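Schema walkthrough. Field components (list of strings):
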Amino acid sequence: MLAGDNGPAVQVAMRIVVKMAGLFGAASLLPVSRAHIDSGIYEGQSGLDFVEMLLAKGARVAVPTSMNVVSLDLERWQENSRVPLSFATPARRLAQAYLKMGAKPTFTCAPYQLKEVTPRFGEQVAWAESNAVAFVNSVVGARTNKYGDFFDICLALTGRVPAYGLHLAENRRGQILLRLKDVPLALLRQDAFYQVLGYLVGRLAGTAIPVIEGLPTFITEDQLKAFSAAAASSGTVALFHIAGVTPEAPDLATAFGGNPPGEVIDITMDMLRRARQELSVNPDGHDRPDVIALGSPHFSLAECLELAGLVEDRRVAPGLEFFVATNRVVYQALAARGLLAKLTAFGANVTQDTCVVVSPLIAPGAQLLMTNSAKYAYYAPGKLNMPVVFGTLAECVDSAVSGRLVRDDTLWN
Amino acid sequence: MELSLKMLIEGEAAGPLVFTGQPLSFWGGYDSHSGEVIDRRHPLSGQNLAGKVLVLPGCRGSSSGSGVLLEAIRNRTAPAAIITLEADHILCLAALLAQELYARSIPIAVASAAFFEWAARHDGTTLVLKPDGALY
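Field assembly_structure (string):
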């Protein structure tokens, strides 16, 4: 491949893969069975330059390849006047370049909720997107490092990864133990709890692989998704273990590979309350949210059904915008079940392929964002330059209807 | 204080040292048009890092970080050099891609904990970094 036997695009990609392997001390390369590509988010001309250079050299993916979100709803971007043509044109060109290379039009940041692209336990893959990496490593038990933009496409074109880091069994053991203390059962059933816990674990873990003890076995896939996304946003977590829940942690001893934990931290209700407060950044004390954003990572069908149950005979307050981000499969399922019409009648703007952080969907001058996503809450102040309030799904819906912040602290006290 | 760093991406750079003990996610944390840190929870929030020698533990958060640093190198709003405590592949990749695409880049180096302690006390000092890792 380095010599150009597989064409000039693979040659460039392999040159980068080999250089990176050298930088990280990998002695060899490993074959992978799948890739997930995050580089379809339009961040500027340089990304397009790189991909079109590869395409011009005849690039084709070597393994089944799924796509992360892109910078616009590819089918309905024209319905939103806030997506200017000057942005839509290069953003669409970027997405189309990947499809021309043979990537699948999945366009989701929760690819592990699509059966046909989710690997099996132990499979070596090349995935990008921090939340997807954390989930696929930890919950699925497939093996990948957190790959950066444009390296992901190099891996997909070559079907090879440097043999280092989380691809190797010996680097996947737990390193620090985080023990939950005195968390009431009612809180352990709350989706919002896993958002807050993930944010806190990301902060506490540093670069270590955390093992969490004290979580219930009834934790749902969507709660594990929320936890993964929050921990990968506030920290560098690419792999975690939950004792008795995730596949490489049937018990504590297995999770640590028989070694004692390097550090033990008890997570108290005080720490959780503080973490919950940190997820809101609202220094001027705005109390009228004008944007509600759900779906980071993309809302599953189960989450959409829960939302649909909360919006019956209700209507979003005038002047307030309500965004729900999801993937194409869920979008079509909602349409088929008549739920899309129900959500739209409520006043929700359901988008596929993208989300409010990577696509210019929010009105300029909006004052306050409310979300049930720790990942949105984490990135909103910087990426959207907006104050943000974190709440549960029910609190987001109640706030949308009343036009004022509604939050209930009962479970946290 | 050691005066030689391990170079991951070779190059030459000079600029005032900016130190932070907290990892930074370039995606969502760095404005590639201006060079400003826009992560409002980060201690460097509001500082412009264009042309600075940035010393930090590493990246955190989104793997979209390489795209943002690549764009900053293209726009000439990137730090002059980045020195991390642990090899950071998000940053190295951006520097490597810039070489392939634009035939210019920024040096990326790894330093010891001892250098970090020194750097924490010398914020603002002008540093000159040579391709062999020598530091003045």
